[in-house]
């Protein structure tokens, strides 16, 4: 791991003057003296002056394929921070379905020209440095957050770069491992329910696939908003969904969903996206309701036909469905994706602090065993959330 001269220091150098012990690769808590001509002219806790990491350890994706293509490399370059960016010393990063799909080639029309990539979206860690315009973060602060789905330099690295609005303060009541499992899934659910459907107290919400991370986050967000929540999930997740506040949890393996679920809903979030689930979800909506699916076709069509044809084709399909459902059934149809939202992330943090939102972690792996972690998800050896821990 290498460091450059701190920005803003044209001459002289910074000498370590002691204070609290720092952690590996992190200068948090140490006092430095600005030395010119052999004399100390200033003492500063690295607040206005930052060491910038120039290289660090990271997991690279040099080509698409199975878990074996992932490579843990030393001395991977760390780009300079833009004014609105934050350098985060990662302590834990979670493995999302998007990570394993991207590794296998999902989105290759977008990402193949940009290889090698660093996978990973979620992160929990400590602020190591901030850009010139960042005001809400300080060096040493514990934070958690998530990158946009199309980010090329992900979080499977000792030092990740996120924009200020992609991070917020980590709740003190949870560990880095627990925190890293939350942001990407919870923000995906938040955007669908709060930003798109604008759910409110007293409304009825159906979550198709409430056993996964996004679905379980959606159940908790809707319950916290005062909604009446029903969900479908596997039998192993029924008790957890009910304990989280769902009024009904239907085991889709043994029950007929259409017979088990009664009444109409104001919002349906479909995390599965199969044609049959879409049909059921649409039919359970009341007029004026919102159907939202995570399984939009933009990336898959772009991969199949190329960006020039695939993206316009996906847009045409979406517009056709929106027109069809709006004018025949009076409902709104959406493909929904995660995106950075500081309001949403802050609400998620508050719910975590109030113990109204959590995502269980089923298994942890050290970052050096990232291949084993991906293999466990590919083979469904671990049904729940997997987290990579960094020393």
Span of the ends, CA to CA: 14 Å
What low-confidence regions span 5 or more consecutive residues with pLDDT below 50?
3-50
Shape: globular
Q: How much of the residues is beta strand, in percent?
A: 25-35%
Look at the structure and give the CATH class of the largest domain. Answer: Alpha Beta
Pfam families: ADH_N (PF08240), ADH_zinc_N_2 (PF13602)
GO molecular function: oxidoreductase activity
Protein name: Enoyl reductase (ER) domain-containing protein
Describe it for me?
This protein has 391 residues and is of the alpha/beta class. The chain folds into 3 domains: 44 residues, no CATH class; 156 residues, Alpha-Beta Complex (Quinone Oxidoreductase, Chain A, domain 1), CATH 3.90.180; 109 residues, 3-Layer(aba) Sandwich (Rossmann fold). Strand 13, helix 6 and strand 14 form a beta-alpha-beta unit. The two termini are 14 Å apart.
Keywords summarizing the entry:
ADH-like_N; 6-stranded parallel β-sheet; Rossmann fold; 12 helices; 29% helix; disordered N terminus; globular; Quinone Oxidoreductase, Chain A, domain 1; GroES-like_sf; alpha/beta; oxidoreductase activity; Lipid_raft_assoc_Zn_ADH; 3 domains; Enoyl reductase (ER) domain-containing protein; 391 residues
């Amino acid at each position: 791991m290498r460091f450059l001269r701190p920005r803003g220091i044209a001459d002289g150098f910074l000498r370590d003057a002691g204070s609290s012990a720092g952690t590996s690769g992190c200068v948090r808590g140490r006092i430095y003296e600005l030395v010119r001509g052999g004399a100390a002219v200033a003492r500063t806790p690295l607040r206005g002056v930052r060491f910038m990491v120039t290289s660090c350890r990271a997991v690279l994706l040099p080509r698409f394929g199975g878990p074996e293509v992932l490579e843990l490399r030393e001395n991977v370059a760390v780009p300079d921070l833009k004014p609105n960016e934050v350098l985060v010393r990662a302590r834990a990063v979670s493995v999302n379905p998007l990570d394993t799909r991207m590794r296998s080639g999902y989105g290759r029309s977008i990402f193949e020209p940009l290889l090698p990539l660093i996978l990973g979206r979620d992160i929990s860690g400590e602020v190591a440095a901030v850009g010139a315009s960042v005001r809400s973060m300080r060096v040493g602060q514990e934070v958690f957050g998530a990158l946009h789905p199309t980010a090329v330099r992900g979080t499977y690295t000792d030092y990740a770069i996120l924009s200020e609005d992609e991070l917020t303060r980590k709740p003190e009541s949870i560990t880095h491992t627990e925190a890293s499992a939350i942001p990407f899934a919870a923000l995906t659910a938040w955007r669908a329910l709060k930003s798109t459907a604008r759910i409110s107290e007293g409304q009825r919400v159906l979550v198709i696939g409430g056993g996964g991370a996004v679905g379980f986050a959606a159940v908790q967000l809707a319950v916290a908003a005062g909604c009446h929540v029903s969900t479908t999930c596997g039998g192993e997740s029924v008790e957890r969904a009910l304990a989280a506040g769902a009024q009904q949890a239907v085991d889709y393996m043994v029950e007929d969903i259409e017979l088990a679920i009664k009444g109409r809903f104001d919002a349906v979030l479909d995390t599965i996206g199969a044609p049959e689930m879409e049909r059921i979800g649409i039919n359970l909506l009341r007029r004026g309701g919102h159907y939202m699916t995570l399984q939009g076709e933009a990336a898959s069509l772009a991969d199949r036909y190329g960006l020039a044809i695939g993206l316009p084709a996906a847009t045409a399909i979406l517009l056709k469905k929106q027109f069809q459902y709006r004018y025949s059934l009076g409902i709104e149809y959406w493909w929904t994706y995660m995106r950075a939202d500081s309001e949403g992330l802050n609400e998620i943090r508050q719910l975590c602090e109030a113990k109204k939102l959590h995502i269980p972690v089923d298994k942890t792996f050290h970052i050096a065993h990232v291949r084993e972690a991906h293999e466990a998800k590919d083979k469904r050896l671990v049904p729940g959330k997997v987290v990579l821990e960094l020393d």
